Amino acid sequence: MNSEPRSVIGEIIAALNLPASAQVERRVPKKLLLENGAPTAADKRHINDGIEELFWVAALKPTTIGVSEYRDAEREYLEIAVLRFTLRAGAKAARLVELVHRAVPYPLLLLMEHAGQVVFSAAHKRWAQNEAGKTVLDGDVIAAEWENGSEAPHLEEFREVLALERQPHGTLRALYQGWMDALIAFNAARLTGSFNPAADSKQAKARQEALRECARLDAEIARLRAAAGKEKQMARKVELNMELKRIEAAHASARARL
Prior knowledge:
Elements: H1 8-16, E1 23-27, H2 30-36, H3 41-50, E2 51-60, H4 62-65, E3 70-71, E4 76-77, E5 80-87, H5 93-103, E6 108-114, E7 117-122, E8 125-127, E9 135-137, E10 142-147, H6 155-160, H7 172-192, H8 201-230, H9 234-256
Parallel strand pairs: 5-6
Antiparallel strand pairs: 1-2, 2-5, 3-4, 6-7, 7-10, 8-9
């Protein structure tokens, strides 16, 4: 991928160390997203107005990387697609990341650049319960972000664990989970100050639950601090500060599980 400009996205793609047999580098028409990933008129506008360009970087399947497909009653992993896309100013970045993950029937390694920020995300897929042949997201979109052109804390350690040869090779699902676990480890490191890849998927799942709890408590802490700062009645201010201490203790407990 020598044509990729030097950027965080280019470095992440290079760090994946994908074989030439898997590389695609083909523009994806927005029409495909509109047909498959835009459930509302507002979403169609987000795609039309927000996406500058979308590229299919690589197709990881048994014939291109030598890892077996995975099938069970709820899902199938026949291919992992690597995509990158750029957004225009004012685009709804978080919503567009979700829409692209929803639109493509395969699990994605999705790299997005927007307003100087880079987002690297992944999300499991499963069969829709009420629509034959349709897939839906299976759990959260796991995403990490940082400023383009900067060396964010732990970014180098993160890149070092991304190489294809360092991931589980039992099935495409196990391979994909390996990359998701790396994303989770990176997000945990930003809170703990130490990058430690999970020993197994059970630990990675527990970490993700703790990260979700930390995010929820962060929002509650911000709300309580704002309320306490505006409160005029002393008794109510004391009550809010006591609640704030309780939430901060819960946050410390969730952080300790990372």
